[in-house]
C-alpha cells in the first residue's frame, strides 16, 4: 500500500497516522505474495464479530468472500454451550493458575490492574523499569506477568516495595484472570488475541503497543471502541512512568474510566450475541461448515 505524507485513509476506517499502521507496512515493500493468495481463496474467516467492525467488514465483504466468526474464545466465557470448554488447550509456558486466582480472590471488585505483554513481545531494561515504577506510583493493586527470562530486568528493590499490593508471576491463565471480578483494567501490548479477549470479557485497556498490528489495535481501543487509553511514548519511544501512572489512574479512578467500563460491557454483550445460536458469527460458521460438507 503506497503511503504519502503523515496519514493513511482507507475505506470505512478512521484516518490513521503513519505510526498507527502495522509495522510491516512501510510504504516500500513490493511483496504481494499474501495478497495474491487472498485473491484466489473462496473463504476468508476473521476472528472478529460483525458489530465490532461492521463498516469495515461490510466494505471488505463487498470485495472479497470474508466472514467474521469470532470471538473464538472458549465457550464458557461467552455462550456457555460447552461446559468443559474453558481454555485453548495449550500453553507455551508452565502453568500455575491456582496461586493467581487465589490472590485475586482476596482483592476487591475492579481493584486490580492486570499487566501482560503476551508470549512474544519483549521489552528492554529501561522500559521494564519505567513500567515497574509506574505501577508503584499508581498505588493500585496489580498482577504483572513477567517471563522468567525477563525477571532480571525488574528493578532490584521493586518486589519488596510493592509486596503488599502486587503479584509478579511468570504465567497466568489469562482468560480466567480477565473474567475475574477483581480485575479493573488490562495493561496490554494490544496484540489481537489479547485485545479481543478483553473486549469479550468487558475489561477496559491501557495500550502499550510495540509492533505489527498492535499500534492499529491501540488506536481502535482508544478512539473507535472507546474502551481504553494509550500511553504516550517519549521521543525515544519509551513509555515513561508518569504516563503509565496517569493512564492507570484515569481508568481506575477517573470519570472517563467509568465511561470506558460501560463501553467495555456493551462490547462484551455484543460479543456474546454474535456467538450465541442465531448470532452473526454462529450463522457464518454454520454457512461455512455446510458448504464444506456439501462440496
Automatic annotation (TrEMBL):
Record flagged with keyword Transport: no
PANTHER family: GLUCOSYL/GLUCURONOSYL TRANSFERASES, UDP-GLYCOSYLTRANSFERASE 74E1-RELATED
Protein name (record): Uncharacterized protein
Pfam families found in the cross-reference section: UDPGT
PROSITE patterns, alphabetized: UDPGT (PS00375)
Homology family: Belongs to the UDP-glycosyltransferase family.
Superkingdom of this protein's organism: Eukaryota
GO molecular function per UniProt: UDP-glycosyltransferase activity
Keywords: Glycosyltransferase, Transferase
InterPro entries reported for this sequence: UDP_glucos_trans, UDP_glycos_trans_CS
Amino acid at each position: 500500500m503506497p503511503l504519502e505524507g503523515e496519514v493513511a485513509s482507507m475505506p470505512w476506517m478512521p484516518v490513521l497516522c503513519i505510526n498507527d499502521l502495522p509495522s510491516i507496512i512501510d510504504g516500500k515493500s513490493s511483496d504481494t505474495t499474501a495478497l495474491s493468495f487472498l485473491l484466489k481463496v473462496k473463504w476468508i474467516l476473521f476472528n472478529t464479530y460483525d458489530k465490532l467492525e461492521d463498516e469495515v467488514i461490510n466494505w471488505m465483504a463487498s470485495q472479497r468472500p470474508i466472514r467474521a466468526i469470532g470471538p473464538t474464545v472458549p465457550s464458557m466465557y461467552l455462550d456457555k454451550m460447552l461446559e468443559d470448554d474453558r481454555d485453548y488447550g495449550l500453553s507455551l509456558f508452565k502453568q500455575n493458575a491456582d496461586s493467581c486466582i487465589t490472590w485475586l480472590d482476596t482483592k476487591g471488585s475492579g481493584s486490580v490492574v492486570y499487566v501482560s505483554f503476551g508470549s512474544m513481545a519483549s521489552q528492554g531494561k529501561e522500559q521494564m523499569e519505567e513500567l515497574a515504577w509506574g505501577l508503584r506510583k499508581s498505588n493500585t493493586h496489580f498482577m504483572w506477568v513477567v517471563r522468567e527470562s525477563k525477571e532480571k530486568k525488574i528493578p532490584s528493590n521493586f518486589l519488596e516495595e510493592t509486596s503488599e499490593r502486587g503479584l509478579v508471576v511468570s504465567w497466568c491463565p489469562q482468560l480466567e484472570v480477565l473474567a475475574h471480578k477483581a480485575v479493573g483494567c488490562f495493561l496490554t501490548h494490544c496484540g489481537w488475541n489479547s485485545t479481543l479477549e478483553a473486549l469479550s470479557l468487558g475489561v477496559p485497556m491501557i495500550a502499550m503497543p510495540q509492533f505489527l498490528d498492535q499500534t492499529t489495535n491501540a488506536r481502535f481501543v482508544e478512539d473507535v471502541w472507546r474502551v481504553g487509553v494509550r500511553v504516550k511514548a517519549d521521543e525515544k519511544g519509551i513509555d515513561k512512568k508518569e504516563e503509565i501512572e496517569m493512564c492507570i489512574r484515569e481508568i481506575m479512578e477517573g470519570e472517563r474510566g467509568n465511561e470506558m467500563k460501560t463501553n467495555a460491557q456493551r462490547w462484551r454483550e455484543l460479543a456474546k450475541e454474535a456467538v450465541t445460536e442465531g448470532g452473526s458469527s454462529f450463522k457464518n460458521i454454520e454457512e461455512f461448515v455446510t458448504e464444506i460438507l456439501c462440496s
